[in-house]
């Protein structure tokens, strides 16, 4: 099936020739679970007094296919290209635990889009992609016709614990898969091309929120932010806001760990890294944010990278956004095991504007009108 994703308004449309179902590349991790995921999670959270490390996947997959040590030599994923064409590959990390270093043998990659935001073309040889992140890269198929490795070795803590664990390059070239070489993407060099610049420029934020995360193993594994482990409420945050009129932080329980943000304010989140070896991919719902201070590089208010997942390891990372999108927005580590252990907070953004006004969450009549239109369609179109 050929699907054409071409966007006529794409500012980078002139940079590539092909963008279709064949150019989506997913990277994921795979667990050979003898027991169910909930059991494995229970062992992580409560086994060994909370002293167990994260469950380790057995293999990495490219487009759903991967090998593991001692396993069958399945045909690896293959991405066909035609010599002379330029391809927009959309690389997505859909994993539970793993980050990847992505590269394609013998080819440079020009990054043009990050987490749905167009950025100035930046050519590298390889880049790290953490869970939930997306990159569009242009590859020019201008090399001799033969097979080249697509490489995506996993970045994991404790991977030696699982002897099945194997990188999952996907092709059958005659060279060895190895790892990528050459220029590695430095995130701070990415610059958005539409409306660049952090909200408010270099003025101080209206509100600065420090977020310090820690792993505790006192009888169970928990990840806390500012000493609070997030736990899902019985009643969803949105419902408490729109139906029960919640507007103050004190109305939420401690473990809902909910910050109420006023409308149209500039918010800085100061996420303090910790030296525990993981890169935590922090994902914010409801906004693309500006990374005014990344894991490395200078402070930048002029044209910092804009995305919705940022990796935080040992440094202090500062992200900025404006509260112009009322809603209950989650900020969480995208490593599933850490999220389940509590590594999250909620922002109740502009609660009043969620209840009334043009941005309210109350379903508009024009949307309700869609239901009878849909139900009137012939069954084949429903
Ligand atoms: Cu994490």
Automatic annotation (TrEMBL):
Low complexity bias spans: 167-178
InterPro entries from the UniProt entry: Cu-oxidase_2nd (IPR001117), Cu-oxidase_C (IPR011706), Cu-oxidase_fam (IPR045087), Cu_oxidase_CS (IPR033138), Cu_oxidase_Cu_BS (IPR002355), Cupredoxin (IPR008972)
Does the record's keyword annotation contain Glycoprotein? no
| Domain Plastocyanin-like, first and last residues per copy | 22-162, 232-352
Does Membrane count among this protein's keywords?
no
Extent of the signal sequence: none
Q: Which UniProt keywords apply?
A: Metal-binding, Oxidoreductase
Q: Where is this region: Disordered?
A: 162-182
Sample GO molecular function, one term: oxidoreductase activity
Q: What protein family does this chain belong to?
A: Belongs to the multicopper oxidase family.
This one is known as Laccase
